[in-house]
Design brief:
The structure holds 2 protein chains of 2 kinds. By secondary structure, chain A is mostly helical. Chain A has a single domain, classed as MetI-like fold (Orthogonal Bundle), CATH 1.10.3720.10. Chain A has 14 helices and no strands. Chain B has 13 helices and no strands. The chains are: A mainly alpha, B mainly alpha.
Chain lengths: 277, 290
């Protein structure tokens, strides 16, 4: 096969050329600078930078909090998508539009709003404080911020699949004597599974890299509530460019891996739905 | 999105009323706790000490220069990525070539890179210790801790928005209409302006709205390259951070409220564009049937 199949439309060379040039200048060249810079490091220095105890603790905080936030949104995202697609209630269209708020609201605004609300003397935090729950300036605060930031992903991946689900399947299952709960577990859930996992992976990937909403509420205590992106910033502030580069490379590799996982899930999802049609 | 096509379901394919109410109640409580209360609290905190302090925080010179820098950044970054998005979607959706899906993955890449890493890569290129740092210093060009760095970091984080909106849309539309226009004697550019552009205008606008919201609100990437020089290299989100860290909460939330307002306008515009795009699609289908 030739590189390009014949077409009567003009502009292939111009549009692809510009695309590749712009992509290289804005994305590929700067990212390769990171890899080259890390390549200049001695292996032992690199290993030391990415595995010192404070950095290891930050991986635990980042991945742990991201996982919990993604699980929370897996459950509540499914519930929210279900309610929005299947039930009717007043104000439904506003709630539907509001789901995208975390995409539209700048992360720093979300960060200071959540930190103020959940501080021990905040409007919500003071009541939680009475029962001994501390949210702001603890790892729990990080989970709250990440839950906010990644809220839309599962809702928006599940919603269209749920909308296209054929009612006939459920009717058939019911006529064969299945209970509502059995229908949900055996008929609906397996169909939604690829979309659910895609949304989960998107939420998790976004949470790992998140910075703006977290730093205000986290308290940023070493070994307890420091996230990995903050470690990069603090290395930069100490002019430790190599240390920052090493940790950034670890995050970049994780991002790549997540991107591949998400692509795989989307491919699986498309195949699943294609077969059903 | 939904709501209009909800025909009443038979009793076997929905839940009993109490279960429906319970599930709706839990879902709405979750929305209230995580979305509504934080949003409302931004405005409540901003107006806590009255209108006069609120306005004073906004007309103060540093706040004003942050607003101007934010607008400037968006005015440069969004059109650049708009042109890129159209070019990329034209190449990818209208032609078949090797390595296409790999190219799409690369275009999506900035979405999965942490904003902090996005800022760092430009520091490594243009910073004092970076690849081109010495050369830039010799020629007295400042990119990092200056406006160009802020623009570059913003272009990076908003890179995929328009392209990823247009690629699936243009793939779904095919190229029959463009081929017809060319056969009838239109030039390539005429075909693009008169046939393609009207077909993709809602998708284009949708991508621009999302890119603009991100460009004006970006924090992490911009924070790394900005250097936080008051009145010089602070965008609104960075100005909010400084005020907040100085315990100047009313001013911090006053500036944050502009961004929250921007978010609400974004959501409204997005809903309108979704509605308009659905209407256009329905109309096109009707024409196709006739």
């Amino acid at each position: 096969m030739a590189f390009k199949q014949h077409s009567v439309l003009p502009g292939f060379g111009l549009s692809l050329g510009f695309t590749l040039l712009y992509l290289s200048l804005i994305v590929l060249l700067p990212l390769s600078a990171l890899v080259v810079k890390a390549g200049h490091m001695e292996w032992s220095a690199f290993w030391h930078a990415i595995s010192e105890p404070r950095v290891l603790a930050s991986y635990r905080v980042t991945f742990g909090a991201s996982l919990i936030a993604a699980v929370i949104n897996l459950l509540f995202g499914l519930l929210l998508a279900w309610v929005l697609v299947r039930y009717s209630f007043p104000g439904k269209r506003i709630v539907d539009a509001l789901v995208d708020l975390p995409f539209a609201l700048p992360t720093a605004v979300a960060g200071i709003a959540l930190a103020t609300l959940y501080a021990p003397n905040g409007s919500v935090g003071q009541y939680l404080d009475l029962v001994g729950i501390k949210v702001a300036f603890t790892p729990l605060g990080i989970v709250f911020a990440l839950t906010f930031i990644t809220l839309p992903f599962v809702v928006r991946t599940v919603q269209p699949v749920l909308q296209d689900l054929e009612v006939e399947l459920e009717e058939a299952a019911a006529s064969l004597g299945a209970t509502r709960w059995q229908i949900f577990l055996r008929v609906i859930l397996p169909t939604l599974l690829p979309a659910l996992l895609t949304g989960f992976a998107l939420a998790f990937a976004r949470a790992i890299g998140e910075y703006g909403s977290v730093i205000f509420i986290a308290g940023n205590m070493p070994f307890v509530s420091e996230i990995t992106p903050l470690m990069i910033i603090s290395k930069l502030e100490q002019y430790d460019y190599l240390g920052a580069t090493a940790i950034a490379l670890v995050m970049l590799v994780v991002s790549f891996a997540m991107l591949l996982v998400i692509n795989g899930l989307q491919w699986w999802s498309a195949k699943r739905l294609g077969r059903r049609k | 999105m939904s709501g209009t096509q909800n025909a009443p379901r038979s009793i076997v394919t929905t839940e009993s009323a109490p279960v429906r109410w319970l599930l709706t109640g839990i879902a709405l409580l979750f929305v209230a706790l995580f979305l509504v209360i934080p949003l409302v609290s931004v405005f409540a905190e901003a107006f806590k000490q009255g209108w006069r302090l609120y306005l004073a925080a906004l007309v103060e010179p540093d706040a004003w220069s942050a607003i101007k820098l934010t607008l400037l950044t968006a005015v440069i970054a969004v059109p650049l990525n708009l042109v890129f998005g159209v070019a990329a979607a034209w190449a990818i959706a209208k032609f078949d070539f090797k390595g296409k899906s790999f190219l799409i993955t690369l275009i999506d890449l900035p979405f999965s890179v942490s904003p902090v890493v996005a800022g760092l890569i430009y520091v490594l290129l243009f910073g004092a210790q970076g690849w081109w740092g010495p050369w830039l210093a010799e020629h007295d060009i400042k990119i990092i801790f200056a406006v160009p760095g802020i623009v570059l970091a913003t272009v990076f984080v908003t890179f995929p928005f328009v392209a990823r909106e247009l690629i699936p849309l243009m793939e779904a539309q095919g190229s029959e209409e463009e081929q017809a226009a060319l056969v009838l004697g239109a030039s390539g550019w005429q075909t693009f302006w008169r046939v393609t552009l009207p077909n993709i205008k809602w998708g284009l606008l949708y991508g621009v709205i999302l890119a603009n919201a991100r460009a004006m609100g970006e924090f992490g990437a911009v924070s790394v390259v900005s250097g936080h020089i008051r009145g010089m290299t602070n965008t609104i989100p960075l100005h909010v951070e400084i005020l907040y860290n100085e315990y100047n909460f009313v001013a911090a939330f006053a500036c944050a409220s502009i961004l929250a307002l921007l978010a609400l306008v974004t959501l409204a515009a997005k809903s309108y564009v979704e509605w308009a795009a659905a209407r256009q699609a329905a109309e096109d289908r009707r024409h196709a049937v006739e």
